[in-house]
Amino acid sequence: MSELICVGAIAGAFGVRGEVRIKSFCAIPEDIGNYSPLLTEDGSRSYTLELTRAINNGFAANLGGVATKEQADALKGLKLYAPRDRLPSLPDDEFYHADLIGLTAYDTGGAELGKVIAVQNHGAGDLLEIRPAGKDSVLLPFTLVNVPTVDLAAGRIVADPPEGLF
Fold first, then answer.
1. What's the mean per-residue pLDDT of the chain?
2. The pLDDT value given to residue 54
3. Signed CA dihedral, 56, 57, 60, 66: sign only
4. If we measure between CA atoms, which residue out of 111, 109, 97 comes closest to residue 150?
5. How many Cβ atoms are within 10 Å of 33's Cβ, its own excluded?
6. Per-residue confidence band for 2, with pLDDT thresholds at 50, 70 and 90
7. Which fold has domain 4-86?
8. Is the pTM of this model over 0.85?
9. With 8 labelled, which of 38, 57, 79, 148 sits at a CA distance of 20 to 30 A?
C-alpha cells in the first residue's frame, strides 16, 4: 500500500494574484483542505493549501509559495498527495484506489485473470483496468456482483466477470 494518496490536482491559475484552480479527488471534495500541507508525488515539495471559494468543477485556493499567475500556471497538472495517516480510515467495503492498483485478479475458480493496473471512473462508477499476461487490458466494473472479494492483505481480488469479458 502506498504511503501517499493522490487527493487532487492543480488545474491552472485562477485570476492574476497567484490563486490556483484545484480539482479535488476526495469523496467529499472540500475535505482536500483538511489534508494540508499537500505533497508532490515524490514528496520533494510541500504546499500549504487554503481553499478560498468553490468554483465550477473545483475550488479556488491559495498555495503556500505561489504569489503570481505565472507561478500558478507553471503548476498546472501537478497532482497533490496527502500522507495516508492524515486520511480517514474507510469502512470494510470501501477502498482507496491506490490500494487496488497492483492487486492480482483471480476468477471464482482460482484462475489468474491479470493485474489491476488502474482504477478509472468516467462518471458511471469505478472500473478496474485489469491487464492479463500478454494481452490488452480489460475494464471490469467495480461492483459487488463483479468483484465479490477484495483481500488487500493477500494482494488479490476475486472477480466474477460477465461471460466473454476475458
1. 92
2. 94
3. negative
4. 97
5. 18
6. low
7. Elongation Factor Tu (Ef-tu); domain 3 (2.40.30)
8. no
9. 148
107's CB contacts (< 8 A; 6+ apart) are 113, 158, 159, 160, 161, 166
Query: Quick check: 108 and 37 in contact, CB under 8 A?
Result: no
Q: Give domain 97-159's CATH number out of 3.90.230.10, 2.30.30.240, 2.40.30.200, 3.20.190.10.
A: 2.30.30.240
Per domain, the residue ranges of the chain are: 4-86, 97-159
Could you read off the pLDDT of 38-49 as tens digits, one per residue?
999 998 999 999
d(CA 39, CA 43): 5
Given the C-alpha cell 491479470, which residue does it identify? 114
In angstroms, rounded to a whole number, what is the distance separating the alpha carbons of residues 75 and 66?
9
pLDDT tens column, 76-115: 999 999 999 888 888 888 888 889 999 999 999 999 999 9
Q: Read off the pLDDT of residues 25-34 as tens digits, 9 standing for 90 and up.
A: 998 999 999 9
